[in-house]
Each structure stands twice: as C-alpha cells, then as structure tokens.
Specification:
Helix content: 40-55%
Strand order of the largest sheet: 3-2-1-4-6-5
Number of strands: 21
Oligomer: single chain
Largest sheet: 6 strands, mixed
Number of helices: 16
Distance between the termini: 53 Å
Shape: elongated
Length: 468
C-alpha cells in the first residue's frame, strides 16, 4: 500500500469513527463525549488492522482504548491466539483482557450461531465491567456484501437486506441496554485492509475455521464471491449501496409503523376496528414493529399472514389465541393483546401462608410479584389484620367478594365478566384470604365485610407483578 493509500484509509477511518462517536454521544443520557472504546480483537487480519487504526486515533483524541478477546475453545490453536493478542496489545500499551466461554449449552442453534451469541454476550459483559459505551468490530465492505447476499438467499425483507448499520444498539445480543456497537470499516474493502496490514508489518493469526465451507458465510466467501467478482467487478460497493437504500426504506417503514400503531393503540392493546382500516401490507408492518417493540422475535411471513387472517376473520365471540415462541397473541372483545407465555401451572402452586407484621410490601417470588399493604381512608383495621392468619394463592374457584356495602356479594366469575377481565387473566388472579373469607382479588378489589372507617389505621392490598 502506498503512502497515499494509507493516508486515505486512515482519513476514511477517522471520518467514520468520528461519525460513530458523535452518534453515541448524542444517544447518551448525559450527552457526554465518549471517554472509552473497546475493540473486538480476535487477532485476525481485519481486527488487527482495526486495532492499529483505533490505537492511533485514541492516542490523538485522548480516548482510553481496550482490546477484548474471546476464547471459544473450539480450536487447538486458541491458546496461542490469546497469547499473540496479549503480546500485541502489550507492545502498543493497550489494555487487553481475554475471556473464555463454553458454547456447549448453546449448540442447539448450531456451532456458528452459538459461537457468535456467546462471543457477543461476553464482549457486552466486558464492556459493562469496564464502563465502555462503544464496542468496535472490524466488519468491512466485503462482509456487508456477504451479509446482504446471505439475507437475500434466506428470503429476508427490507430489514434483513439493510445489512449492518454503521452504529446500532443490540441489547439482546450484547446483554446491555445502552452499549453501542460501531463498524468504522464498512466503507473499506478487505483488499485495502490486506494491503494496509502488509504495508505496516502488522502480524496476525489465521483461524482455520474461516476456510471451512460447511459454514454458509465461508462458502459464499470462497466459492461464490470470487465468481461474482469476475463477472461484476466492484460488486461489493454496489451491494453496500443497495444496503444503504434498504436502510433508508426501513427507516421509513419504522416511521410509518410507529404512526399506525399509535393510531390503533388503546392502552396496551390494538383496536381491531382501527386496524381493519389499514392495507394488509401496513398491518403486517405494524405488527412486526409491535413485536419488535416488545422484544419478540420476528415471525416468518407465512406465520404473520396466517395470524393476521385469524385476527381479522375469527367470529366476534371467539377466544382467539395464537402462540408465538415469546408469548401469545390474543383477541378479546375487538382488541388484540400481546401476553407473555404462562410458564406456571397454577394448580400445582400451593397457597403460601403469611402473617402481616406491619410491612409495606411482601415479596412472593413463587407467585412472581409483590403484595403491597397501603393506608386508605376505608379499609381493613390494622389491629384486626395483624391478628389474622392469611394466605396468598391463585384463584381456585368459588371465591366471593362484596365490593361495597350497597352492592351484593358475587362470585369472581361474575365480577370478572362485569369488569371485562380477559379469560386468560382470570386464570392467574391473586387472592388474599383468611381461612374463612377472601379479602382481596387482584384486578378486582377488596371485600368490604371487614372494612370500615372507624378511628385508627386502615389498609388495603395491591398486587404488583414482577416486571417481565
């Protein structure tokens, strides 16, 4: 690589990293300049080039630089790679830390995906440990082209064809809600990095798994991309440009989905009558956005079409429930709800006896929530409540409540119907009771048989489920 080419590469890197740092600083709650960055440093050619480029910029900008290395234990050479990375960082005066991971528990998703998930989870943990707000990876222009082609072969939509962003948050992957991931080399080709490393005399390691054609990306890289390069020189730049167009289209789709969802929402549920006013494409776009906002995995197109059909065409009184790996989509009285998967068989959970001794809140982990005991003008006398043997349990059937002195005593089934409580929520109603009488039902209220407004402290119950 000539001196001019090296200077242009460094200038492109500086510009790209400057844009990333500005975005990260803008997204931060306190809008402070980024004080530290980390490199995902495998020791390979790409990350070695990134390490040296970032080192020069960090020194110039006064930013602390960390290099984090993940030892997967998949290669007999992994120990040597870790030692190589540690020695290179020591020579440059860069803080280095390695973490070993065991991907055995993740192999159900395949070795390639398991290694990726384990690696990014460990990198996110290291960034959190060292208070680093930005993780840099060495993805470059050729990686972007491979990503776009892979997504196209998988039949992905606009979001998949957008490829990799220059900078984004990935809380599910990194396990950290505010950590940002930046890719300052997306505008640089693999050939440019190869020339830069050779010209600078930078040493690096070769991971033998990078040539294994059993992995889809390797098969594309070594068997497909060379043919495309012969027939269409400069294809990587055009793929990258297409990814940028798709990113722009995806941003417009997100804006439209956010607007449509706001128009259709009533609290936490969607009003079907409003949803029916939209075209099928806009409904699907809205539903994907809704799922994403609830951190639910994106469904396939076929699954989404079938679900939309059931939501819109089922009879008005149908108790519709469509299962999703991360929850349930339910319909109740012309409303659509997203509900978490019920992992507890309420019939197998025994009542939990307790005594109230003045606590403002009592946690019941077995039931997934906290019982709050709060002062009220009209409620249970505190002296009386202290003397009672209480239990907290799920609804079992036959419970009755009298919600006010001028109202009749009714069973919970009728009260749930009157209050329009959906059927699935009735199954997990929390009951606080004495051996003889239910005192409280979550979502319904207090029984009034023992409540009064006489002198002294009076209390009511409130059930608070744990956050999902």
């Amino acid at each position: 690589m000539t001196d001019k080419s090296t200077a242009l590469l460094k200038l492109e890197f500086k510009r790209a990293l400057g844009d990333i740092l500005t975005r990260v600083s803008t997204c931060a709650l306190d809008a402070r300049p980024v004080h530290a960055i980390a490199i995902a440093y495998s020791g390979g050619l790409d990350s070695s080039a990134l390490l040296h480029l970032a080192h020069a910029h960090a020194q110039e900008a006064g930013i602390t630089l960390h290099a984090f290395h993940i030892h997967h234990g998949l290669s007999e050479n992994a120990d040597a790679w870790t030692q190589h990375c540690a020695a290179n960082c020591a020579a440059l005066g860069i803080h280095f830390e390695a973490r070993r991971i065991d991907i055995a528990d993740l192999l159900k998703s395949g070795t390639e995906e398991a290694a990726r998930n384990g690696r990014y989870g460990a990198l996110g943990a290291l960034c959190a440990q060292h208070d680093v707000p930005l993780l840099l990876t060495a993805h470059h222009e050729d990686d972007q082209a491979e990503t776009v082609l892979l997504q196209l072969l998988r039949g992905s939509g606009v979001a998949g064809l957008s490829g990799m962003d220059r900078v984004n948050a990935a809380p599910d992957l990194l396990g950290h809600p505010t950590l940002m991931m930046g890719r300052p080399l997306l505008g640089v080709s693999r050939a440019q990095l190869d020339d830069f490393v050779a010209g600078q005399g930078i040493t690096y390691v070769d991971d033998e798994s990078n040539t294994d054609p059993r992995f889809a990306r390797n098969a594309l890289r070594h068997q497909v991309m060379p043919v495309i390069a012969q027939l269409f020189p400069g294809y990587a730049q055009r793929f990258s440009r297409s990814a940028q167009h798709a990113q722009s289209a995806q941003r417009l789709l997100i804006d439209l989905a956010a607007q449509d969802l706001a128009d259709c929402l009533d609290g936490d549920c969607i009003v079907l009558a409003r949803l029916r006013l939209l075209s099928s494409d806009r409904i699907d776009n809205l539903l994907r956005y809704w799922f994403g906002s609830r951190r639910m995995r994106m469904p396939s197109t076929a699954w989404l079409i079938e679900m939309r059909s059931q939501l819109l065409e089922a009879k008005a009184d149908a108790q519709l429930c469509v299962s999703h790996p991360d929850g349930h989509i339910r319909r109740h009285r012309d409303r659509v709800y997203l509900t978490p998967k019920q992992t507890i068989d309420t019939e197998l959970v025994d009542p939990e006896p307790f005594k109230w001794a003045g606590q403002a809140a009592i946690a019941f982990p077995q039931f997934g929530g906290t019982l709050h005991v709060e002062p009220a003008a009209h409620g249970l006398p505190s002296d009386w409540l202290r003397q009672q043997s209480l239990e907290l349990r799920y609804r079992s059937g036959g419970e009755r409540l009298k919600l006010a002195p001028n109202r009749p005593t009714k069973n919970l089934k009728h009260l749930c119907q009157a209050l329009d409580i959906p059927a699935w929520e009735r199954e997990t109603l929390i009951i606080v009771a004495t051996p003889k009488q239910a005192l409280y039902a979550s979502g319904i209220g207090m029984d009034c048989h023992h409540t009064n407004e006489e002198a002294g402290e009076h209390l009511v119950f409130r059930w608070q489920p744990d956050a999902m």
